[in-house]
Amino acid sequence: MLSIISVKAQQVPKDAYLAAAIPDSLKEEANSVVRYSLEEMIVKGPGKATIKQHTIVTVLNEKGNDEASIALSYNRKFNTVGSFEMKVFGPMGNLLKKYHKSDMYDHSAVSGETIVTDDRVLLVGHTIASYPCTIEMTYDEDFKSLTDLSSWLIQDEEQSVQNAYCRINVASNAGFRYSLKNTTIKPEKAVDGESDVYTWKVSNLKAFKLEEGAQSWQVLPRIRFACGNFDYYGVPGDISSWQNFGKFIQMLNADVCNLSPKRIEEIRTMTADLKTDKEKVMFLYNYLQKNMRYVSVQLGIGGLKPFPASFVDEKKYGDCKALSNYMYALLKAVDIPAHYAIVRAGTNEEPADVSFPYNSFNHVIVCVPLKGDTTWLECTSTTQPFGKLSTFTENRNALLVTPDGGKLVNTPRSKEADNQFNSEVHISLLADGGARAKVKIMSSGVYRSDYIEMASLKTDEQKEYLIRVMNMKQPSMLEYAPGKDADGVKEVELNLEYDKFCDITTGSKQFYRPRVFDLWRLTLPPAEKRRSAYFFEQPMQKACVTTIDLPEGFEVEMLPTNQTLKFTYGNYEVNYGYNSAKNQVVSTAKFNLSNQVIPAAKYKEMQEYIENIAKAQNKKLVIRRKA
Q1: Confidence class of residue 111 from pLDDT cuts 50, 70 and 90?
Q2: N or C: which end of the chain has fewer CB within 10 A?
Q3: pLDDT by residue (tens digit) across 197-229?
Q4: How far apart are CA 17 and CA 132, in angstroms?
């Protein structure tokens, strides 16, 4: 049930601390229950707001333990945490423990590749000893630097909500707007002097489990908030339209795009013998990859403003903004137009909402609009092929920053041919059931990236990865030999030995799985009423030719059945043949997936198709000793 109530009727229910008062319907599929939640935001002006949070959550089992910890980010100038208190209650509502702000661990937000930042984090967590356990938190934060007003995250996966409220107090002339995601609730609106007060309420939301392969942004209910004008680290801006937000980024970058006249002349000299603009772009991109490295430094307005191109040129490092801005400056030096482009990065991340300008971006790339051949450049990677994006930024919209402002455009969508896994396998079976195998892999796209990364792993880690990802049997010996990497194709060779490759031996017969690995290993649970689309990471094309030498004195008794399986967005085919003169079995298997997003209406067809692939791959090759 979704409902709206009066702004004044938001008192904490008397039984909010009593676990026994939770309705049975709210316990189903739930790891935690939001008993009461109130998020209040008072917008004081562009980029300035105070947020007060009061939550009471009952944790039902260990999967809900995250509710007993919190991390609050801040910096000393633009974002501060005021009061904080966390209380822990037993099942009967009895107080067990209290935590205050002074109990929180305060440390720098440095992590991963961010080596310098002025952001800090306050952390505290309680170890729950028994369930159910109720956690109450109250705290407030003061912001003096915001591009938008964030979101109300109404409900998490496997979490039910008994009563939750959100209240926004904002000046009537602030250009306030909101966007509903996966919910239809409407606010109650009141007027308080020169301010508008919006209040949303939800009640009795049942928990649900995210379907396998679904994306949380498709399903979880939330509301986004924004005003027309903002202030970010003391710099005013406008996010009332995508065009205006692009103008803000353009203004930030106006003084960081230039290189010295001497350096510009050197760059022109480097590219003077190249005939076409595309050749020049490729040369400069390769130059960037060979000479610059990715390092994240987040200081002050550095969260949005890149380091100057001259800094990157001298120091040989930068973050995604700085490296992309440097690439832009290199192209500008040789009179090739390009665009700095901000994007929401991450595999299958949520695309920007065309109708609701909002800063959900976290990455920067470069777009080069060559005549009839727009080229996209990922400037943080030293291995990405020229003109190719990865699952990190493909198939969504990016905001091009142009002299006229921002413009949302789609990034390229990869096809199955862009992500290929091709392999040749030669297996020599031994009479005692063991085997030796040589595997040659030619990979492109996401598979190329996987094998480049694998080269840095230890042998045991490589073995574990291959067994897990490719459904290989445990080899007694594995040699990983990286081969050439050219034209976007990475070659790898594997040498394998097996003490036992045979699945079953009975009398004079031996039963084998006639391959070293599976082209496809995923299986999916049946679902008659699928609600959400299923997301693969990318479309793909896979093939393997396997040659099996039988042991001397053996012959084939039974080959696996040839099969052709079809699905709306793909197909699988496997064929077997026996050459008695060479005493060899040769098989060819092919798998392709043409679309990475499968509509919910096609899930049942896909699940049955994948189940049939598993059955096909489970068919045995049977050989026997000759009489």
Answers
A1: low
A2: C
A3: 999 999 999 999 999 999 999 999 999 999 999
A4: 11
What's the rounded mean pLDDT across residues 241-250?
Answer: 97
Q: In angstroms, what is the C-alpha Rg of the chain?
A: 29
- How far, in Å, CA of 38 to CA of 86, rounded? 15
Q: Are 152 and 222 in contact (CB under 8 A)?
A: yes
Q: Give the CA angle between residues 124, 130, 136 to the nearest 5°.
A: 45
The whole-angstrom separation of Cα 315 and Cα 301 is 20
Can you spell out the DSSP letters for 433-479? S-EEEEEEEEEETHHHHHHHHHTTS-HHHHHHHHHHHH-----SEEE
Other CB atoms closer than 10 Å to residue 369's CB: what's the count? 15
Question: What does the CA dihedral 301, 305, 307, 309 come to, rounded to 10 degrees?
Answer: -160
Closest by Cα among 551, 558, 557, 550 to 619: 558
Mean pLDDT of all residues in 14-26: 95
Say yes or no to pLDDT of 366 above 90. Answer: yes
Q: How far apart are the first and last CA of the chain?
A: 75
How many other β-carbons are positioned within 10 Å of the β-carbon of residue 474? 11
Which of 460, 455, 500 lies closest to 481 in space, CA to CA? Answer: 455
For residue 238, what are the CA distances in angstroms to 4, 40, 45, 467?
A: 32, 24, 13, 52
Q: Are 377 and 385 in contact (CB under 8 A)?
A: no
Give this prediction's pTM.
0.91
β partners of residue 592? 541, 571
**What type of residue is 188?**
E
**CB atoms inside a 10 Å sphere around CB 355:** 7
Pairing of strands 420-429, 540-549: parallel
Residue 588 near residue 523, CB atoms below 8 Å? no
Residues 6+ apart with CB under 8 A from 131: 59, 60, 61, 62
Q: Tell me what pLDDT residue 188 has.
A: 96
Instruction: For helices 261-270 and 277-291, give the axis angle rounded to 10 degrees.
Output: 110
Q: Which two tokens stand for residue 245?
A: 């937000």
Nearest to 96 by CA among 134, 123, 63: 134
Cis peptide preceding 351, ω within 30 of 0: no
Distance CA 308, CA 297 (A): 13
Q: If you average pLDDT over residues 22-43, what whole number do you get?
A: 97
Q: Tell me: pLDDT of 1 over 50.
A: no
In order, the DSSP letters of 256-323 are: SS---HHHHHHHHHHTTT--SHHHHHHHHHHHHHHH-EE-EEE-GGGGTSPPPHHHHHHHSEE-HHHH
Q: Averaged over 254-263, what is the pLDDT?
A: 94
- Please state the length of the chain: 627
Rounded CA gap, 328 and 342, in Å? 13
Q: Is 622 helix (H, G, I), strand (E, B) or coil?
A: strand
